[in-house]
Automatic annotation (TrEMBL), chains A, B:
Gene name for this UniProt entry: recR
Alphabetical list of InterPro entries matching this protein: DNA_Rcmb_RecR, Rcmb_RecR, Rcmb_RecR_Znf, TOPRIM_dom, TOPRIM_RecR
Zinc finger (C4-type): 56-71
The Toprim domain, residue ranges: 79-174
Organism (species): Humibacter ginsenosidimutans
Protein's UniProt name: Recombination protein RecR
């Protein structure tokens, strides 16, 4: 609908996930008409990001060095590994400041529909990390959905034979949430996982 | 939260309108992890778009040449000018294929709250276009909201003295909409603008 480069900009913005045609148009006009916005900064980052960013050789987290800042940090508890699906889950957990161990990023979850089996995930690399006796506990922190649960079940079977504590993050009512609006599965899990008070 | 360039990418994406921190993170990981996506194409467009795109000297529409493709088209009806707020309104109207005249893009609407008065809009340029007698009708197609109505009222006062037909797009019920869900003002306008049937 637009002439040349304006349409190119709208098309390229529309390729980004979650950016529909209307948003792409709105962003394009913002870029064109906002004097104070400098589009070359985003352009520069887009040009360099793929070359600069690699994935940590140990845990698979994003990093600008061969190993990530968490794996390099000697103060982290080397006996604990928290297994997550994606690098963004690492950031979410780090924000809680509750966990001082190491991570292992699988790069997804088992999903037959999407053609993702155990071999597409970084499970072999996890096994390699467990070959010496440093690690005592594996905390499985995959998502509490069908794919995440399947992955957790697969991992716990794989790890059963080893001398390890294997744990899973608790499921239950979200803090600050409303019992009335909880779905049946979550409410059921909250009952299953109920704890003694006092 | 992320190391270096990944955080830079998230920050820059987050500067775009309508892209919150979560979306910025999701887009950043998509860019990093999707082999088939080439981020250099967006980078190139972002680098060149500001230099290539100018605004039509006549109507203010976006263009890669001094005048836009609509103003250059001799088949368009030179006696009709449709006045809109933004260049994207031109595209919306072109999509209807109902209008074969010319446009005039104001570059916004009168909004005392945002400090936009008539002098910040391309109203003077519109008056210049009306200096010869080619134009017979001005269709005011500003948005049907407070700012758009104020701008329409201002324009119609300005144009009153001239030998011109000045019209305003009809307000009423959206086609395909539900009467029950129409707001009072829209429903009131639909009554005001009612037409004889048959």
């Amino acid at each position: 609908m637009y002439e040349g480069v304006v349409q190119d900009l709208i098309d390229e913005l529309g390729r980004l996930p979650g950016v529909g045609p209307k948003s792409a148009q709105r962003i394009a006009f913002y870029i064109l008409q906002t004097e104070s916005y400098d589009p070359t900064r985003l352009a520069e980052v887009l040009t360099t990001v793929r070359d600069k960013v690699r994935f940590c050789e140990i845990c698979g987290n994003v990093s600008e060095q061969p190993t990530c800042s968490i794996c390099r940090d000697p103060r982290r508890d080397q006996s604990l590994i928290c297994v997550v699906e994606e690098a963004k889950d690492v950031v979410a957990i780090e924000r809680t400041r509750e966990f001082r161990g190491l991570y292992h990023v699988l790069g997804g979850a088992i999903s037959p529909i999407q053609g993702i089996g155990p071999d597409q995930l970084r499970i072999r690399q996890l096994m390699t990390r467990l070959s010496d006796a440093t690690v005592r506990e594996i905390i499985i922190a995959t998502n509490p959905n069908v794919e995440g649960e399947a992955t957790a079940a697969y991992l716990s079977r794989m790890l059963q034979a080893m001398e390890l504590r294997v744990t899973r993050l608790a499921s239950g009512l979200p803090v600050g949430g409303d019992l009335e609006y909880a779905d049946e599965v979550t409410l059921g899990r909250a009952f299953e996982g109920r704890r003694l008070v006092g």
